[in-house]
Amino acid sequence: LSYTDRYEPELVVDLATLSGSCIVAFGQAAAGVLTSETDAAAERLYAIQRAGEWTGERVHHPPVYDVYKEHLESGIADLKNVGGKTVGASTAGKFLEHFVGDVPWLHLDIAGPAFRTTSHAHHPAGGTGLGVRLLADYLSTHVATRSGTDSHGQIVSLDTPSNQTDRLMRIQRPTFQRPEPPAPNVAPTRV
Q1: pLDDT tens for residues 113-171?
Q2: Fewer CB within 10 A of the terminal residue: the chain, N end or C end?
Q3: CA 133 – CA 173 distance, rounded (Å)
Q4: d(CA 4, CA 162)
Q5: Three-class SS string for 72-84?
């Protein structure tokens, strides 16, 4: 993350197991998504949350308010890497924010849903590969379309089909269907 000032990317996205706090907050149902609390970040959060709902790889945003910087202050070091017993995910987000500066960023804390001990809905037991479908959808629909051009510099619009759009949308949106709820145990009636 500290290389962002050298390379000046338009967006940084990282995935890791950060603090364990997101497991406590969300369990295996969702990954935490951390970013700065800015107007531009709100747009990124909305887009990644929509991608999560679309792909079945849900994310939720713990706040990364400026007040959490206090938890990282140290009398010895420039910055502590652990904020204390409370607001662990939020202080971890503040820690990451320190290194990315003003560069737009998203951190996905995938600790909870990255590995399942039992199968559930669309994930078998074991490693889930969480983030692959989520980021493919997020990058192909939000990031790529914000620029208005494809990788060849051609202007694109996702509102109307075109060759440029087809080139841009090489990654198909996955089809995700929630399983039907089980039928209630009702004895058949005779008429």
Answers
A1: 998 888 876 678 888 899 999 999 999 887 666 655 544 454 444 443 444 344 334 44
A2: C
A3: 8
A4: 34
A5: HCCCCCCCCCCCC
